[in-house]
Amino acid sequence: MTAEPAAHPIIEFRNASYQLPDGATLLDSVSMTIARGETLVLLGRSGAGKTTALKLINRLLEPTSGEILVEGRATTAWNSIELRRHIGYVIQEAGLFPHYTVVQNVSLIPRLERWPEERIRPRIEELLLLVGLDSGNFSQRYPHELSGGQRQRVGLARALAADPPILLMDEPFGALDPLTRADVRREFSALQQRLKKTIVLVTHDTSEALLLGSRIALTESGRLKGIYSPREFLHSSQPIASAYTAQLHALEEFERGQ
Amino acid sequence: MNVMDYFLHHPGEILGATLEHVELVAVAMLIAVAVGVPLGILVARRPWLSKPIVGSANVAETIPSLALLGFLLTVPWLGDRAGRLAVAALALYALLPIIRNTAAGIAGVDPAVREAARGMGMTERQILFQVELPLSLSTVLAGIRVATVLTIGIATIAAAVGAGGLGEYIFRGLAMVNNSLILAGAIPAAILALGADFLLSILERRLRPAR
Q: How far apart are CA A163 and CA A82, in angstroms?
């Protein structure tokens, strides 16, 4: 049980559905609550509705029925700009602005929020240090001069710039090679403890879900199949959950056979 | 009298006609950019407007230049002055490449970049001015370059309605069957076109975003 009173979740889905104009249902009456400070991982295969769920939270999409509450207020009742400034957003391939340097990318939101210059500069240094890019070396580079892992770190720094309480991450490590991926993930896992943000992370990688999630929400064809703690998930007899963990067991068996 | 002699004997006159030519093109291009870039943005934002807007610009492009001048002559305010008439016709011709390249440049911005911008809470206006336009600047400029070169050539027709420019020599040369006179108009026009192409292509390369 979490110490957080369940009556005040930071994000809540209430029978939220999202349909395309052509009638295809991407998300089918999902209800769940996300507690302040937890890391909820949305796990599922491509097309399971994970990204749709994420975009409903920062109102890049609006639910066709039901509602999503952020800080107790329906997303449609928020000013969408204000809502998005309240929520950091990290996507695959980082989506960095190619015409901006690292510093310009990271300082974008503080500048839009009209922070004074003397407050922006130390904040940028702090952020680059936080994500492991010591400012002197990288700050004036352009995204195309960085490796995939570095770009991803800049993307994270940019999302954290204005210190939003919520962080949405859409397959943030998806475009990285396996070794870099493991590195960045491990660093992120350490960072997570310090940040104390509410994080919603989308992935199709079981070990990532187990490593980073405080809870795992399993999605399949737009439906929520269940929410598990990593331990429950590992030992779940639910056919879909065990299909995911079977991959992990296969690895163990392979190692035992060696 | 050969061309060189003509240039040597009438430098001031040719320079005057060249400046007149540049002025016609410059004013027409200013108007075409001021109208074409916003139209291009509109087309990129509302794809259903592409057919009517790009279609109309396309039609204007296909009207033979002399005929277009003739049509515009009947338009009340435009037809009053030769310069006005010529500038309007030139601006119409310059419109299509500008609209098309602006729309293509904006449509070519990586969707992930646009989505990141929206997701971070940038307003549509901020996305346009700080992300989409800077990233499509070199494509927009390529359209302006094509339009400028085109317009420098077409502007020789302006002399047909008495708007001056280098076309004066060409028309006079045609009437007098004097090749030197024709070249006295054609050579400076060609040099102008090459020069504009060169300068704008340098600017375009400078502005191209790194990948």
A: 14
Q: What are B172's strand-pairing partners?
A: none
Q: Does B208 touch chain A (CB under 8 A)?
A: no
Reported as a single tens digit per residue, the pLDDT across A180-236 is: 888 888 888 888 888 889 999 999 888 888 888 999 999 988 899 889 998 888 888
Distance CA B74, CA A256 (A): 91
B120 lies within 8 A of chain A by CB: yes
Hey, what amino acid is at B164? G
Q: Which amino acid is at B7?
A: F
Q: Which two tokens stand for residue A92?
A: 């695959």
Query: A65-70 and A73-74: which strand pairing?
Result: antiparallel
Q: In what order do the strands lie in the sheet with A73-74?
A: A25-34, A11-19, A65-70, A73-74
The count of other CB atoms within 10 Å of the CB of residue B153 is 16
Measured between CB atoms, does A146 come within 8 Å of chain B? no
d(CA A27, CA A52): 7
Q: How many CB atoms lie within 10 A of CB A192?
A: 16
Distance CA A201, CA A185 (A): 12
| Nearest C-alpha in A relative to B135 | A99
Chain A nearest-CA distance from B129, in A, is: 13
Do A10 and A71 form a contact (C-beta atoms < 8 A)?
yes
Q: Is B117 part of the contact surface with chain A (CB cutoff 8 Å)?
A: yes
Angstrom CA distances, A115 to A83, A96, A112, B60, B126, stand at 18, 21, 8, 49, 17
Given the structure tokens 């407050």, which residue do they identify? A119
Tens-place pLDDT, residues B122-158 = 999 999 999 999 999 999 999 999 999 999 999 998 8
Q: What is the CA A117 to chain-centroid distance, rounded?
A: 29
Kindly provide the ipTM of the predicted complex, given to two decimals.
Answer: 0.83
- In sequence order, the 6+-apart residues with CB closer than 8 A to the CB of B202 are none
Nearest alpha-carbon partner for A43 in A205, A250, A170: A205
